[in-house]
Structure formats: structure tokens, C-alpha cells
Design goal:
By secondary structure, the chain is mostly helical. It folds into 2 domains: about 200 residues, P-loop containing nucleotide triphosphate hydrolases (Rossmann fold), CATH 3.40.50.300; about 100 residues, no CATH class. The protein contains 12 helices and 7 strands. A hairpin with a 2-residue loop joins strand 6 and strand 7. Helix 4 runs antiparallel to helix 5, helix 7 crosses helix 11 and helix 8 packs parallel to helix 12. The C terminus is likely disordered.
């Protein structure tokens, strides 16, 4: 699973890994959360981005509907309202439901089995999926799913969580381009909490939890993703150098995310859209985790007024 705080580059990494010949890559955000998720974080982030929970009893048809899975279900049910309608997807939802039920037949009704059925049924029903025949693993992306790392690794002890982090200035500047953005303080505290957990899990599960800095990615795509592929036990593929969807190269990552062009210049230009006051507030509230992640040495000239040396 790929995890990333909002506008931190999760969609970019997702699209860069899309064409890897040994991965079944989910087409959109795989929003696995269900309405049964209820804990101390329920008011902090939307349940759709969480690892799912299920009632004690249920049938496959009910369990299928519980997965929020907004982006794919909108595309399947009301394609004219989907932001991805320009990309051809041949997938019949009735086929997917049948495949989901077939995956659960004879299986214990556990969370791990239901999540596995979610991914397997999607690719079983996806007719125009570009396949290599060498796929060995499934890759999903759900923002802030790092919050549930313990649950993910309990269900799938051999799984990997890839957490993408981006400097909070550029990330917040992209966030406020959305029609209903979080306020600065709320966004910053969520960013802080995500990075605290990511740093903790990277220490606790060094073989399963991987931190990827967006700045490293845009500076040297081959080196950063080459290292990640090695950590995941995957061979290198040049397909990782170009964002794609179902193997089709993309000129820009948008509309998968607000990041259109993943370059150092674009990253800096985005940060420089902030006012001096916004920059100062973010710096004050995030400086502890910036130090841990190397962002206190990040050079952001221009409107931000930063006087830091280059990372």
C-alpha cells in the first residue's frame, strides 16, 4: 500500500509504479475504508482512507458494498461524473461482484480475506488491463493509510507500506487549490501526526515500511525508485521513469492529484505561492518533524522568504 498525507505525492508514486511488469496496480485511489471504522481517529481523517473494519456477520454482497472505493465505483456507475472518464476502463461491476463472491467462497470471513478479495476481483473483472503475465503483487494507494500500519501488517505480515512525504510548504500550497481545503492548522497537525507515525513505523518495521521523500524522487527518479524497488524485492523497470495509467504514459499526473508536473522547479514554485505569513505559521508548527525529515535545510527562495541552505 502507498500512503501519503494529502498532496504529498502519493498519486505521483502510484502513477510511476503503474507500468511495473510485476505489479497489479489499482487504477485509482483504493479507498478501502468502511463505515464500520470507528476509533479515536474517526474525526481526524475520513473513514474512506482507513484500513477497513467489518461487522461480525455478513454476506459477500454486503461486504463488497461496504468498501467505500469512491473513485472506481463512481467511474463504473456514473462515468459521466468521473474525473477519469477520458481514460478507457472496461470493467463490468457485476463481473467484479461475482469475482468477489468467488474469492470468498470457502474462505474464512476475515478482514485479510476480504481485502484480498477486493483486489483480486478488481483485476479478474478488468478486461482491458495491460498485463505482462509476470505480476506477483498488488499495489494500492490510500491517503494517510499509514495510520493503520499495525493492522495492515497484522493481516499481511509480508506486506509493504510505502509512505511518501513532501515538504509541508509545497504540499499545503497544493492543498489550498482544492475547492474545500482543510484550514492551515488542521492540515498541519494531520501532516505532523502522519510523519510521526511514519518515522516510528520506519524504525519498528524497517523491512516492511519505507519512507520516500518527494524531493528525492523529483531530483533523481531512477535512484529513488530503484532503491524502493530493491526494498520491495522487485527488479528495476524503466517504466518507473514515466507516470502512466494502465501502461499509457501521462503528460501530467493530474487529475490523479493536484501535482501536475513532478520536477524540482515545479515543487519550489508551488511552495512560493504561499504568503510570508503562511510560511511562518507552517514553519513554526512543523519544525520538529522538518528536522527529522531534512526539511529544515530545504531552500525555498521567493515569496516564502526562507533563509535555509539546500537540502
Amino acid at each position: 500500500m502507498i500512503s501519503a498525507m494529502y498532496e504529498n505525492g502519493g498519486n505521483t508514486v502510484h502513477r510511476l509504479l503503474d507500468g511495473h511488469p510485476e505489479l497489479f496496480v489499482y487504477p485509482y485511489e483504493s479507498q478501502l475504508g468502511t463505515s464500520a471504522v470507528s476509533d479515536y481517529l474517526s474525526s481526524y481523517v475520513p473513514f474512506k482512507y482507513r484500513w477497513p473494519e467489518f461487522p461480525l456477520g455478513g454476506e459477500p454482497a454486503q461486504d463488497y458494498e461496504l468498501f467505500f472505493d469512491e473513485e472506481l465505483k463512481v467511474m463504473l456507475r456514473t462515468p459521466e461524473r468521473s474525473k477519469f472518464q477520458h481514460m478507457p476502463l472496461e470493467l463490468d461491476e457485476a463481473d467484479r461482484r461475482r469475482a468477489f463472491a468467488a474469492c470468498m467462497q470457502g474462505q474464512p470471513r476475515t478482514r485479510a480475506a476480504l481485502v484480498e478479495a477486493f483486489f483480486r476481483s478488481t483485476f479478474a473483472a478488468w478486461k482491458n488491463r495491460c498485463r505482462s503475465g509476470r505480476e506477483t503483487a498488488y499495489l494500492g494507494y490510500s491517503p494517510v493509510v499509514c495510520l493503520d500500519t499495525e493492522k495492515i501488517l497484522t493481516d499481511f505480515p509480508d506486506a509493504h507500506v510505502i509512505h511518501v512525504v513532501r515538504n509541508p510548504y509545497s504540499a499545503f500550497a497544493d492543498t489550498i487549490r482544492r475547492p474545500f481545503p482543510l484550514g492551515l492548522e488542521r492540515w498541519v497537525w494531520t501532516w505532523n501526526y502522519c510523519q510521526m507515525l511514519a518515522l516510528t513505523y520506519a524504525e519498528k518495521y524497517p523491512s516492511n515500511f519505507h519512507l520516500v521523500r518527494f524531493e528525492n524522487l523529483v531530483a533523481d527518479r531512477r535512484a529513488t525508485l530503484g532503491k524502493l524497488c530493491a526494498q520491495l524485492g522487485l527488479p528495476w523497470s524503466d517504466t518507473c521513469l514515466v507516470p502512466s495509467w494502465n501502461g499509457t504514459p501521462l503528460d501530467e499526473v493530474y487529475p490523479w492529484g493536484t501535482i501536475r508536473t513532478a520536477t524540482p522547479a515545479a515543487n519550489t514554485a508551488t511552495a512560493n505561492r504561499l504568503s510570508v505569513d503562511q510560511h511562518a505559521q507552517i514553519e513554526q508548527l512543523t519544525i520538529l518533524f522538518q528536522r527529522q525529515l531534512g526539511y529544515d535545510r530545504l531552500e525555498l527562495p521567493g515569496n516564502c522568504g526562507a533563509s535555509k541552505t539546500a537540502a
